[in-house]
């Protein structure tokens, strides 16, 4: 743990780092492959929409039923002609969910189930969901998602800039597509709990992205007044300085969600837990990935299309080439890059590791090492 903490501190100070932005084409390719797989899953398998979206009926039997889940599924299919989802509840009763049936036939299905299960018809509770109500639920979900996206773009454009807002929007669409595609591939049922999970992960995804963007905004103040770093260099520095924070928050969030998914859903067979926890688990992982590998590199790509950033990159590369030809360190001390008419803090706006020349005479009479 101490080594991990030391690594995090070194990443934050810029002493070590990984070139995330420089290898962005690799991450773009990986994301495109994952996204295509998710889209194919949606196109081929489709989403297993729950009864709330399709309409149908839910039958609840009395307590302490002796019939097994598999037996009840067979009875429900014989009675309705449709596949059924059966859950055994904690009190021993059975919850039989049949989607896509005509609600007018619910009484006949109820009578048949009562006969097969050997219980009185009056003891089976039936809840009916019409298809029009399911359409309303779906429309409200889409409206909520659209409003959320618009508000996010407006806020990020005001708080940061439109390029960061666009990159965050692309990352959110990336996360939603992957999550829904995995739902299609796994075959989990889409319920209102799934929608809740999707909306929740959007907030988590934005949290990690905004943390990196805030660091990037702070470190790129007056970036054009120096010739040591390009915008991509600073973007990469921002990712590395917040990397451990993003990893720690994601892992802490994934642990309880994983417990819900694998213990609550897998061993206890709790359907609603499956619906929420799968979307949260996949979405949290995808959100952490997109904030590091998609959003920030995309911002760097967009920013370096600006004329000012193109000129800065040209100056930085020319100075590095000159330093390499002269055998000097390619990343000189920041103070050496300041012009006489520039404030001292302008050069310090871009934070990074400093490789000091060995021959420099530092600190004449001052512990700080700065010259008067």
TrEMBL record:
Q: Which family does it belong to?
A: Belongs to the SecD/SecF family. SecF subfamily.
Q: Which residues cross the membrane?
A: 26-44, 141-158, 165-188, 194-216, 247-270, 276-300
Q: What segments bear the compositional bias annotation Basic residues? A: 361-372
Q: Where is this region: Disordered?
A: 320-372
User: Which species?
Assistant: Streptomyces coacervatus
Highest taxon above the source species: Bacteria
Q: How does it sit in the membrane?
A: Multi-pass membrane protein
Name assigned to this protein: Protein-export membrane protein SecF
- Classify the main location: membrane
Lineage per the UniProt record: Bacteria, Bacillati, Actinomycetota, Actinomycetes, Kitasatosporales
Role of this protein: Part of the Sec protein translocase complex. Interacts with the SecYEG preprotein conducting channel. SecDF uses the proton motive force (PMF) to complete protein translocation after the ATP-dependent function of SecA.
Q: Which UniProt keywords apply?
A: Cell membrane, Membrane, Protein transport, Translocation, Transmembrane, Transmembrane helix, Transport
Location comes to: Cell membrane
